[in-house]
């Protein structure tokens, strides 16, 4: 027995020698800039579960059992490195930056993929590449950043909506709006009661990345809502390591970027006198554009904190954003909070993710059209103030716009919570079940009011329009994902089910006649004289979906993606409740072939091809069902009571307001795409080129029946044979210099050519934009015609002023008469191509980034000029531009008619964003024990614009739609765009 004990002691001694407890420590830095790299995973080769992470100074310490071995250093954005160690050794490790984007993770529907495995057309923008400055919403972040994505601001108002068109306009009624998915939750923004952009509730500083799914292969997994593309937003998550705190502070100053060249006071006097007009001279010299605009001051404060362990991570933030517009009572205030959590359990088989965003939004809007119209047409000889008070005796008995600003208000308060929780469990290796439960709840109250003003007859009563809207969107999803490999074959199989229910309720109240006591109408309802109308509505829509996807790869060379989704929507009739949306895509990583593996020039070359179908269900609810109302007019009643002497004694009859149509189908977009991704010269030069062809059919519209004898004047239907075709080419290129130098740079850009065409429409024209005001309401400005693009301008050609002082037009038939059938297509609001480019420079701690964007080949209809800039206005002492005196023989009574006289070139080039920054070294300023980073930056937005357009800005669309069909390229007293300079400070602890 003693011998056995002796042998055991000897064996343990040997083991203690071979597995001596020790440690290895050191620091990890980047090989180019020699900066510490925090968050690097360090583990013994073959034992990844024992990994530790470097702290924010790049330091690490790991326990080792053996005296010698190999440590593995791994971190996203750097090449993995293996380093030999000896126990108790101190290492200095330099990691090489991974320039290639092949290992970049791209978020796709219900999952993510490495860029090298993607077969669809997906554009990605990371947070470091977002547009900087005073930014209110997602669209502003990505303008000009992705080929084939045209982001157009509807106006210059704080938080204004954007028209985001992905690969051309593919619908009429449903417009261009893509589907937005935030952390796996599909949003519904159709009815939340917010007058400005509904996406303003998302704090831009909370966003980590934005992925744009452009082709059908990428977006078909979202089926019925993906016809206009999908924008996937991923918010910032925590990572293991020491807690990191970031404080961002920005202050911005916004001013009117461009003035319209209306007459000054002296020139105005000369011009009115020259045409023998009625000069009303107030004796002053007033620039109403200066008087009615201001320097808007915007302030942003954002505090975030993130960190975690091997088992759990967290990221939290609070933000305050106060943005002032260039008009009084034009403000957007946002108070936001975000919390993202992850937790692992049961040997990392069980994972749970929780995401929540809570926002309070306060939006004040002025009477925009009134203010813009006033600053352009007010008599410049009128004084603004008399004895320190707003002048109440202005030319033509108009109300001083300063008074109108004081008595008018449009205020919206929106509270919104978006939250989802997603637990998942891995039953066996590679097989994971995930449940996603989410809710998006929004409550909005909007008050549009006018305080009584006794000195002006039309304003003495006071009015209030109170609108209360609630939107409740609930999502339940179940997915099963299986990842497995068989030799050189790799598979990812996804199957899922989704159910989404959206409820929108709205109440609308109108009141008139309030006491003139200095109290706002919304706060004294007890004094109201009468209710002028009230209404309410409730809409409930459901979407039930089943979907599946297979990703297959062979030897990292050949890729296949196949998707199918079936969507059932309550918006459609019983005969076509479900739609089916397939897609298939192929990819070939040519670089991995033997003949390119050793190439020193070609680092990546991948060919992609795809085909698929997506749908659109963005139509009004209940349109498949009949709708009725009561009427006792015309043939809708019968005198059952023989004593009745007029219609008031007749009974009411039920009549159709809408016919039932259970056969309505989905709009379907069928898209084919072929693309090439490449990177060359050690990944210095990279790019993509894509060709796409997208055809939309089964177009849904509310139309007038061909048969005039119908029980309803209009009905909803799919237009037989009508197609909207979009085809084009997209190109993106990027080049980076050697980043190891003190001076480095990168340059790049993108350009997209798109041809849009309407085919086989049974209608001569479907009006997409009409004129307003001055006897012109409803006159066609643009529309959809066979053989031309959507938004084509359809009007008479202006041919100067005739001897009688009236406008002349070209007889295009020709039949010797000028009539409606002399109208022709005179251009389109849709650009022939859009482009953007950037220049980034870095010298030591300084950096400068310049971002440009532009469009070409489009037209804009200057509705402001048609309405206001004419000789008749000038003769009555309203201000105009030199358009009014362009033709000396024009009669002051010449009428305004929609024509090419007011159609202008909409092409432009804009310096959209420029940022100059300096990164302070905390060590150099003696704060290295307190701070991790300190950055100061100055950003300019809309610094200069090159255009021939005579209005405030060519990137504009007032949205003068007809019959809820979206309009394009019409400028009607839009909120002018501002120029903003902002100063930002970023501090990391």
TrEMBL record:
<keyword id="KW-0812">Transmembrane</keyword>
<dbReference type="InterPro" id="IPR037066">
    <property type="entry name" value="Plug_dom_sf"/>
</dbReference>
<keyword id="KW-0732">Signal</keyword>
<dbReference type="InterPro" id="IPR039426">
    <property type="entry name" value="TonB-dep_rcpt-like"/>
</dbReference>
<dbReference type="Pfam" id="PF13715">
    <property type="entry name" value="CarbopepD_reg_2"/>
</dbReference>
<dbReference type="Pfam" id="PF00593">
    <property type="entry name" value="TonB_dep_Rec_b-barrel"/>
</dbReference>
<keyword id="KW-1134">Transmembrane beta strand</keyword>
<feature type="domain" description="TonB-dependent receptor-like beta-barrel">
    <location>
        <begin position="393"/>
        <end position="943"/>
    </location>
</feature>
<feature type="signal peptide">
    <location>
        <begin position="1"/>
        <end position="20"/>
    </location>
</feature>
<dbReference type="InterPro" id="IPR023997">
    <property type="entry name" value="TonB-dep_OMP_SusC/RagA_CS"/>
</dbReference>
<keyword id="KW-0813">Transport</keyword>
<keyword id="KW-0998">Cell outer membrane</keyword>
<keyword id="KW-0675">Receptor</keyword>
<dbReference type="Pfam" id="PF07715">
    <property type="entry name" value="Plug"/>
</dbReference>
<dbReference type="InterPro" id="IPR000531">
    <property type="entry name" value="Beta-barrel_TonB"/>
</dbReference>
<dbReference type="InterPro" id="IPR012910">
    <property type="entry name" value="Plug_dom"/>
</dbReference>
<keyword id="KW-0798">TonB box</keyword>
<dbReference type="InterPro" id="IPR008969">
    <property type="entry name" value="CarboxyPept-like_regulatory"/>
</dbReference>
<comment type="similarity">
    <text>Belongs to the TonB-dependent receptor family.</text>
</comment>
<protein>
    <submittedName>
        <fullName>TonB-dependent receptor</fullName>
    </submittedName>
</protein>
<dbReference type="InterPro" id="IPR036942">
    <property type="entry name" value="Beta-barrel_TonB_sf"/>
</dbReference>
<keyword id="KW-0472">Membrane</keyword>
<dbReference type="InterPro" id="IPR023996">
    <property type="entry name" value="TonB-dep_OMP_SusC/RagA"/>
</dbReference>
<feature type="domain" description="TonB-dependent receptor plug">
    <location>
        <begin position="115"/>
        <end position="230"/>
    </location>
</feature>
